[in-house]
Amino acid sequence: MNILVISFADIAYDGRLRELIRIAELLGTVTFLGKKELIGDESKGFARLSLQYLNAICRSKIFFRKYGPFDIILADNRRALLPAYRLKRMSSDMFLVSDARELYLINDVKGLIAKLGCLIEQFILPKSDVVIAANSFRAKFMEEYYKLKRPVLVFENLRKLSFGDRHPEEFENTKLANNLNTGRINIVSTSGCIISRGNDRLVHAMKLFENEVHLFLVGRSPESDVSHIKEIIEINRISNVTIIDQVDEATLKFILTHCHIGVVNYHQNDLNNRYCASGKIYEFLFDGLPVLTTENPPLQELVETYSIGVADDAFIYGLRELIENYDYFKRNVISYAKTVSIDDNNNILAKAILDRKSGD
After folding, report:
1. CA dist., res. 273 & res. 271, Å (int)
2. Between vectors from CA 185 to CA 180 and to CA 187, what angle results, nearest 5°?
3. With bands split at pLDDT 50, 70 and 90, how would you rate the model's confidence at 43?
């Protein structure tokens, strides 16, 4: 089969998109439509295109004549929906698969373009042959809200970090390695200093564990949030927090291999965050780290079902529970990680798409 993947995300920083492409490759020969930064290796079947978003919509007819026809169109997120739908209308035989990775409603967003994106989703998702969501909470909501005729397929954001072409030895005897050698329980959060994620509460909590743990806040954040976190640290004389800017995958992998607990924190001010579909939590679990999470329903359900962490919006009780029962949670994480497979996750979705297409 000929598969068209449409995306305007940055594949270098988008683990979900990389897995969707692998799923498309399981289904057939892949052609890719997106920005020039996303161009893949021609040997894998990617068309070498350099179309910006409006061109992708306006020139879709020309594109179809040159590269089509396609059996399946996989639209990655709402920006891909318009060009995908226009292409589908050119041939009723094309099967449209829409990955609704985000869950923003029109009242949740600001700005005309964002609101227009919500309206486009509301119009096109019910016309899609398959809709994909990132967890069961989102799937259930979308089925009701968009009045979908068929159940939404769930594709979890399973992600595993790797060193790639680099080696762990490259990081030894570096400033980073020395900073990680704290002699305490190392905690890592990859949400940086973002205040809306509750990192101000997290930093305040560290004062109560000053002799037991060290927190590493990793990731890019607005300068105002970084300044606020630094102010909290200075005013409260908190000595066990280190701020690290955004790092590449190999460096993050090295950090995780020297940490003991991962923090997964989201706010609940909109549906996209309330029903968060965290890939970060799987990065921690695959590296053997029990997790301290906020009380968002998907996170709380996961950690409580498998006893792999604690959900606590205030962080204090949850962290104390993890410290005092660390070996118990660690064993459970190792056991759970053995039952989760990225390849199986991909194969299940690929089969479900084929079953839908064949009418099963």
Report:
1. 5
2. 70
3. very low
User: What is the average pLDDT across 347-354?
Assistant: 97
Length of the chain: 360
Helix, strand, or coil (residue 214): strand
What CA–CA distance (Å, rounded) separates 247 from 164? 14
* CA torsion angle 6 42 354 138 (round to 10): -40
Residue with tokens 């762990």: 168
Q: In this predicted structure, what is the pLDDT of residue 19?
A: 93
Q: Residue 255 CB: number of other CB atoms within 10 A?
A: 23
Digit-coded pLDDT (tens) for 167-218? 989 998 899 999 999 999 999 999 999 999 999 999 999 999 999 999 999 9
Q: What is the pTM of this model?
A: 0.88
> Which has the closest alpha carbon to 258: 327, 192, 184, 309?
184
Alpha helices by DSSP H, listed for 125-222, are: 136-145, 175-180, 199-206
Spatial distance between the Cα atoms of 57 and 51, rounded to a whole number of angstroms = 9
- CB-based contacts of 303, cutoff 8 Å, min separation 6: 291, 293, 309, 310, 311
What's the average model confidence in pLDDT over 274-291?
95
Collapsed DSSP state (helix, strand, coil) of residue 62? helix
DSSP states along 282-299: HHHHHTT--EEE---HHH
In the block, residue with structure tokens 């997964």: 264
> Rounded to an integer, what distance in angstroms lies between the CA atom of residue 279 and that of residue 152?
19
User: What's the rounded Cα separation, in Å, for the pair 56 and 282?
Assistant: 34
Question: Contact, 268 vs 274, CB < 8 A?
Answer: yes
Model confidence at 341: pLDDT above 70: yes
Half-sphere exposure of 114 (CA within 13 A, CB side): 10
